[in-house]
Amino acid sequence: MVATEGPGQSSLADAGPVAVIGVGCRFAGGAASPASYWEMLRAGRDGIGLLPERRWQPYADLGGDFAAALRRATRWGGFLPDIEGFDAEFFGLSPREAELMDPQQRLLLEVAWEALEHAGIPPHSLAASDAGVFVGVGSDDYGRRLLEHLPTIEAWTGIGSAMCAVANRISYALDLRGPSLAVDTACSASLVALHLACQSVRTGESPVALAAGVNLVVSPGLTLTLDAAGATAPDGRCKSFDSSADGYGRGEGAGVLVLKRLGDARRDGDRVLATILGSAVNQDGRTNGIMAPNAQAQRHVLARACAQAGVDPRSVDYVEAHGTGTRLGDPLEAAALSAVYGAGREPGRPCLIGSVKSNIGHLEAGAGVAGVIKAVLALGHGEIPPTLHHTTGNPAIDWDDAGLRVVTEPTAWPRTDHPRRAGVSAFGYGGTVAHLVLEEAPPPARSEPAPTGATAAGLLFPLSAASEAALREQAGDLAAWLSDPAVGGTLADVGHTLALRRSHLGRRAAVVAADREELVTRLRHVADGRPGEGTVSGVVPPGPGRGVVWVFSGHGSQWTGMGRELLASEPAFATVVDTLAPVFTREIGFSPRSVLAEGDLVEVDRIQTMIFVLQVGLAAVWNSYGVTPDAVIGHSVGEIAAAVVSGALTLEEGGVLICRRSRLLRRVAGQGAMALVGLGFDEVTRRLSGRADVVAAIASSPVSTVVAGDPAAVEEVMGRWAAEDVDVRRVASDVAFHSPHMDPLLAELAEAASGLSPASPRIPMYSTSMPQSCATPFVDGAYWAANLRNPVRLAAAVLAAAEDGHRTFVEISSHPVVAHSVKETLADPHGDAFVGTSLRRNQPERATLLANAGALYCRGVALDWATLQPAGGLAALPTVAWQRRPLWRDTRPRGAGPGLCHDVDSHTLLGTEVPVGGHGMRLWRTLLDGSCRPYPGSHTINGVEIVPAAVLINTLLRAAADGGAGPVLRDVSLRVPLTDEHREVQVSCADGVLRLASQAQDQDQDHGTERPWLVHTSALVPASPAAPPPSPPPDGRKTTAEDPAAVARHLASVGVPTMAFDWTVEELRRGPRGLRARVRAERPGHPAGTWAPMLDAALSVAPVADPVPALRMVAGVREVRIVGEPPETAVIDVVVSDAGPDLVDVSISDGHGAVLATLAGLRYAGMPDVTTDSVAPQHLVHGTVWRKLELAEADGQPYRREVVLVAADARAADDWRERLSAAGAPVRVVPDPAALARLVPAPGAWTDVLLLPAVSDDPPAEAATRATWLLASVAQHLAGGPPAQAPRLWCLTTGVRDGRTGAGLALAPLWGLGRVLRSELPQLWGGTLDVPCGDDAPADLVLRLFGAAPAEDVVSVRDGGFEVARITAVDGAPTRAPFTCRADGTYLVTGGLGALGLEVARWLVERGARRLVLTGRRALPPRATWDDPADDGRRAQIRVVRDLEALGVTVHSVALDIGDAERAVALLDTDALGLPPIRGVVHAAGVLDNRMLADVDEESVRTVLRPKVAGAWTLHELFPPGTLDFLVFFSSCGQLLGLPGQSTYGPANVFLDALAAFRQATDGDVTLSLGWTSWRSKGMSVNEVVDLELRARGVGAISVREAFDAWDWAYRHGAGQCTVLRVLPVEPGMDRPVVLAETVAGVGAADPAEAGPAEVVDLSGLTPEELRSRLLAEVTERIVAETGLSGEALDPRRSLSEQGLDSVMTIVVRRSLESRFGHVLPATLLWHQPTVTAIADHLTELLTAGDGERDVASAVS
């Protein structure tokens, strides 16, 4: 390699040094600012630690080979703890876009902002400037992941992942127009970027430049590469130039330097931290390997940099070396340093060297800037911090002759005859090397010392942030900083920095403080969100309007002493007062200064003139503060000051006018009065019409007016209107302005003003003196006469200004007079307007004015901070309080596929964690087969490979621990053996329950064949594990030695010949109650040790405690507790329970008495049968069959009850009356439900009431609604009396079972209502009698049914007999192919944005749908708002739709009331939607309004029936039978089971069932109505009431997957209407409806929510008094729990409905009492026993009667 050393000095050096004026950094070890970085360096600490735990988890989830590779990867380094968090809102980024940004972009945005604040450059001040950005970056880990996840790529993915955007994003965010480039030269990148930035600054290309470097370790790929190359240190620590150097530790972080030319920095008053004298970059060319370093190239770049800097290398005192700590690199670098910097040194004065990599790791692309910042800080502090981990110099370096020494302790900078200088090196592994020469900052220019405190009145301190939370946090940070006694800087420095060196953001606060203590106190008020004196806060509006309007108020603002403080403290004010002095002396005979300083304000002439003086003086002060008006308004006398400010009059002309006007007013002083009334101007004018003694004078606001006139007249009006509750207040004026009292003065006033020379206003002036609020009035003499006489139209002027776009108003006065009126005027039309004030009576004037200036600042009004903060310099205040939140796109790298894998070396089946929406559930998925068994050996039982119980338990332990220590499992159940056939395995954790389940994955299996999920293992995770495990049994037990090989022989003898893990029993001893074994488990050949081998040993040893050989499988463990790491050798103690040999307690200790694990209550069983928690669809899908009902034979006795017919159809009533009478029944007839109340005698226990509903001519949907309300109304009229006296209510329907007529369809809902009435009113409800179309039931048959009163909800008359409905499983061979959707069709889901609708949408897509229309009451919001949804519900909807769209599905959401047929036709027009025809419809719309019958009204009936009934009929007409591939109705099994509270919902669902049958009467139609049980955690029935009622009837919920499997099953079997429910095994207390009599409990255990019945309380032995007292307490406890009332607030004798217990709550309470006391209670319990006392009395009677029956039974037996 040919090179020349020391080429000539570049011409760029002529531009002078480059100044470093600001620094920002974020490095490991908490070095988040220059100050904290320096503190860490000086203290000799490092930031080396373990990689954040979940950083590389997506890669570990790719499979066992990936996980194994990651275990080999070095995990030690200098890492940042939170790279996921980012304050997106601060930079105006949506969370969605921020997620798509490389976190290096996000990190640099924050650090760049901090660096600019550190430099004292407001970041926003650089907008549109040529400021440049130069960034060294070498990693795009995150971006690669985004680009490799093809399904989620979107428009922002490209720029979010681009390396160029690391620089470009800063330029974009700050609107910088200079060069913006990313540099990648590997480990020299940021130093090369700094080199380029210096060139740009020197040439003038960039007046300011940001030079930066960044590095984040997002993916493990490069780490594995470096590990393979031997470049990384196992402990992650760089041992620079040390004999123990073994590689470097990777580091993360970012650093930013702010640069200017030194001359520019001095001109601008910037603080200079250091200067850059010169730099050089070159390449080492061709070496013996592209990554091999080259000492000659390094020497060359060092020499070139010194030549560029114009310095002798011997004048450089310290070099911040590259110093990675590699065996090859350190000696080569030392040789280069020695050749350039070590040569020619004086003895004992070596060049000092060091490397910050020993503190924070090697930041690779960011390493150079990290070293420069260290050097800059060291130059500034005059001290060199130590290099860590250096004890003995590398022997390959000739330290004696090198002229170098590593700094190993804090060292004062050597004193020399030249300025302090430092060099910084950075070398890229591709061969690009860079070096930089720094020099200490020149001494700052001398300046006058800033005052140490504020003025007596205080200073105004602004704070701003991007959010309220950030503002409060920043205020707290600043208060803490000011409270630190070690912090320097004056209050003036603080104010200067906040006001002039920071950008002012949208969320603001301002604090007035006179000293440090007051500032701290008031900042803490801001931090706490507490308003307080001297503090204001607010939000800059997005559209602040056209500018500020100054409102000059009139008479009434004056107070003695006003202006005195301003005369002394505000030069602008004093100048105005003194300018007016000659005019006042000439025109009115007194000086304004003397009146303000000493005089009283009593006479009107002094009051009015001083109001003017104060106003124009305040205007001058506001102008000096930088606040200028964009328009003005004057109120009465205030118009004179407004005219002056607008430019219509000069200040002197205004003084003349006010003096002459005030002189005239002396004549009328004391003759008038004024009052403010709370009425509008027009109303006051109307009331005072025709009067001249009192008139409406001022239109203050739309709701307030000032009246003026004779004192007596004003007094009379005030008294009269006050009596009418009108708000009235006297105004402090004895002059009746703007009334006839002014008439004598008008001519003279016009004449007095005629000598003025008014001009057109330069600033718009909204007149209040003229009928129209002209913005440019000509203020001549006539105008000023009108000003004195005409009503003041303040409200109109304010509204006119607001209509012109003004939104900020400031009252210019010595006390607020009109501010309230202005606010009232703007309140309704312009509620966003701001109304500020100036001074306040008897309050410190400057402090008040500053606070009001602060309020304007918070509104977004610009202030002249150079005036408000006139002194001080830059202070290192706390920077932005970032409001970070995790924003991370968790995509899988290329090749991830479904990500179904696990780490076999972890000895668990814990696979990839997948996100699960809602309820805090966690889910892990993996695939298992013989190639990825998570254990090294083989575990066959009778020839079948079975996953060991130890692996299953270890899996749940790992899931429970989730990175923590000491996991505990309780109630571990091992139900089904898990084989290693090809299966998907899922581990779930929800509500403290862990489950491990699997599903076969046979690829050849027919898609229609059921693939059940098997739950193999489950356990509970306690919220707070209790005490530590017990000590092991004492060593002194009497035991005998046995052959350690006995364990292996035992296992082999029962069919377990091989071991899953490599463990050995070294010693085995048997005692009277168990075993003790010393076991050695071989450690794996990788670092991760797990508990599985030792658990396997314990579970294998324990069965040997029973000397009788038998195959025993682990069935359960009461508690598994782990408290330590697994030992290599352990003592296993097995203690057999008294309950038998299959129950033992096991402890595992380390041999020294320390118990590390326990398995308490370990239970064994024989090989179990395979069962499943998932129910097959053939056990869920039920059809309706009709069975004969056998009634008891008539005993020959006549019918002895009466019949009351309720019939609006007189013909039908007469027909039934005649027939029933002929059959021997007395009959009465009423036309409607209300007539029942007029019957005498009233119907009673001897009465059968038969409703004969007539079907109207309305469409079936409306007819169904009317019929439902008719039956409900009849039931309500009959249900009011005592249950024992209740009549029996029956209902007659025609043709419902046939399902072929519109009339039958309209009456179908009555079946559902009747079933609910059976539950709610069992004493009242008789049943529904259905007869075929065209047939009728013989009267004697009807009376026979009435007499028998069977407990059947619906009885069908057929062939002279009765039939009743039962449901049975739908089985047999399928008649259709599996359910599918066409890719070329559109599919409509009503209620499609509900929980069930979205699940349906997903499933339809699974079945082939590619175009969906989802309707709901509200459509999705505009797509532009999707990244910031209004609530969690909307967020979930959007997430599902986006997921579907990512699969290529077109999704339209339509806001549609499906019951509105006309809108449905219009909105579901597929041509208009641009979609193909609708091929299938799922009607899932519905409204749930559960009420007990007593609370039902006609509106609630219509509300619930409309979406289901009217909606279904709309769909029926829109899509006639046979026109769709399918129409599926979502019905409910609740009506079949008679769930209380569903007296509207139940009828609606029966209509769907009937309509499905009605449509299926047409050949070729495929309509299916599915009567669902509740879906777990889904749908409208997600509530405790429904679950309780279902369970009480022996019915359980189903999972989403079970639901869709059932749907497919029903579809394939050609059903028209099916009931889908899970029948539970019979338990005590269940009241299973008779309709379920022929069902069979589905296979599978119950959910946790469906656990067995609670333990019944034992009340035996209590006396009646004790029993009643106990029951009173029990009832109270349950009602308190449900209502949320306190026990003290619950009145036991007051109606519970009056205390907030609604009809739905009654069900929960009733079911709770049933479970507690073991008795079925009537649904009407809380109707007829409506108080706590009554319920307790009822229960006492019930339980006492039960005891009596048991006593009798005992006596008989």
Automatic annotation (TrEMBL):
<dbReference type="InterPro" id="IPR014043">
    <property type="entry name" value="Acyl_transferase_dom"/>
</dbReference>
<dbReference type="InterPro" id="IPR020807">
    <property type="entry name" value="PKS_DH"/>
</dbReference>
<dbReference type="InterPro" id="IPR018201">
    <property type="entry name" value="Ketoacyl_synth_AS"/>
</dbReference>
<dbReference type="InterPro" id="IPR009081">
    <property type="entry name" value="PP-bd_ACP"/>
</dbReference>
<dbReference type="InterPro" id="IPR042104">
    <property type="entry name" value="PKS_dehydratase_sf"/>
</dbReference>
<dbReference type="InterPro" id="IPR016035">
    <property type="entry name" value="Acyl_Trfase/lysoPLipase"/>
</dbReference>
<dbReference type="InterPro" id="IPR014030">
    <property type="entry name" value="Ketoacyl_synth_N"/>
</dbReference>
<dbReference type="Pfam" id="PF21089">
    <property type="entry name" value="PKS_DH_N"/>
</dbReference>
<dbReference type="GO" id="GO:0004315">
    <property type="term" value="F:3-oxoacyl-[acyl-carrier-protein] synthase activity"/>
</dbReference>
<dbReference type="InterPro" id="IPR016039">
    <property type="entry name" value="Thiolase-like"/>
</dbReference>
<keyword id="KW-0597">Phosphoprotein</keyword>
<dbReference type="InterPro" id="IPR050091">
    <property type="entry name" value="PKS_NRPS_Biosynth_Enz"/>
</dbReference>
<dbReference type="InterPro" id="IPR001227">
    <property type="entry name" value="Ac_transferase_dom_sf"/>
</dbReference>
<dbReference type="Pfam" id="PF00109">
    <property type="entry name" value="ketoacyl-synt"/>
</dbReference>
<feature type="region of interest" description="Disordered">
    <location>
        <begin position="1021"/>
        <end position="1043"/>
    </location>
</feature>
<dbReference type="InterPro" id="IPR020841">
    <property type="entry name" value="PKS_Beta-ketoAc_synthase_dom"/>
</dbReference>
<dbReference type="GO" id="GO:0006633">
    <property type="term" value="P:fatty acid biosynthetic process"/>
</dbReference>
<dbReference type="Pfam" id="PF08659">
    <property type="entry name" value="KR"/>
</dbReference>
<dbReference type="GO" id="GO:0031177">
    <property type="term" value="F:phosphopantetheine binding"/>
</dbReference>
<dbReference type="Pfam" id="PF00550">
    <property type="entry name" value="PP-binding"/>
</dbReference>
<feature type="compositionally biased region" description="Pro residues">
    <location>
        <begin position="1025"/>
        <end position="1034"/>
    </location>
</feature>
<dbReference type="InterPro" id="IPR057326">
    <property type="entry name" value="KR_dom"/>
</dbReference>
<dbReference type="InterPro" id="IPR036736">
    <property type="entry name" value="ACP-like_sf"/>
</dbReference>
<protein>
    <submittedName>
        <fullName>6-methylsalicylic acid synthase</fullName>
    </submittedName>
</protein>
<keyword id="KW-0808">Transferase</keyword>
<dbReference type="Pfam" id="PF00698">
    <property type="entry name" value="Acyl_transf_1"/>
</dbReference>
<dbReference type="InterPro" id="IPR036291">
    <property type="entry name" value="NAD(P)-bd_dom_sf"/>
</dbReference>
<dbReference type="Pfam" id="PF02801">
    <property type="entry name" value="Ketoacyl-synt_C"/>
</dbReference>
<dbReference type="Pfam" id="PF16197">
    <property type="entry name" value="KAsynt_C_assoc"/>
</dbReference>
<feature type="region of interest" description="C-terminal hotdog fold">
    <location>
        <begin position="1039"/>
        <end position="1173"/>
    </location>
</feature>
<feature type="domain" description="Ketosynthase family 3 (KS3)">
    <location>
        <begin position="15"/>
        <end position="440"/>
    </location>
</feature>
<dbReference type="InterPro" id="IPR020806">
    <property type="entry name" value="PKS_PP-bd"/>
</dbReference>
<keyword id="KW-0596">Phosphopantetheine</keyword>
<dbReference type="GO" id="GO:0004312">
    <property type="term" value="F:fatty acid synthase activity"/>
</dbReference>
<feature type="domain" description="Carrier">
    <location>
        <begin position="1666"/>
        <end position="1743"/>
    </location>
</feature>
<feature type="domain" description="PKS/mFAS DH">
    <location>
        <begin position="907"/>
        <end position="1173"/>
    </location>
</feature>
<feature type="region of interest" description="N-terminal hotdog fold">
    <location>
        <begin position="907"/>
        <end position="1028"/>
    </location>
</feature>
<dbReference type="InterPro" id="IPR013968">
    <property type="entry name" value="PKS_KR"/>
</dbReference>
<dbReference type="InterPro" id="IPR049900">
    <property type="entry name" value="PKS_mFAS_DH"/>
</dbReference>
<dbReference type="InterPro" id="IPR032821">
    <property type="entry name" value="PKS_assoc"/>
</dbReference>
<dbReference type="InterPro" id="IPR049552">
    <property type="entry name" value="PKS_DH_N"/>
</dbReference>
<dbReference type="InterPro" id="IPR016036">
    <property type="entry name" value="Malonyl_transacylase_ACP-bd"/>
</dbReference>
